[in-house]
# Entry
Amino acid sequence: MADTEQTALIKVNDDTQEISMESAESYIKSMIYVIRNQQVMIDSDLAMLYQVETRVLN
# Structure
């Protein structure tokens, strides 16, 4: 059986792009900030990941 590279779909500026899982993981990790020793994500970044409007997420 041939190895297949896992891919993920991300949506950036209304364009859906297919990227490798390693790139997706790196992309998501870049959106995580540490504030007062807590890992946090900005609501607009989370909304983008879930493909909903920020107001719906909040």
About this structure: The chain has a mean pLDDT of 80.
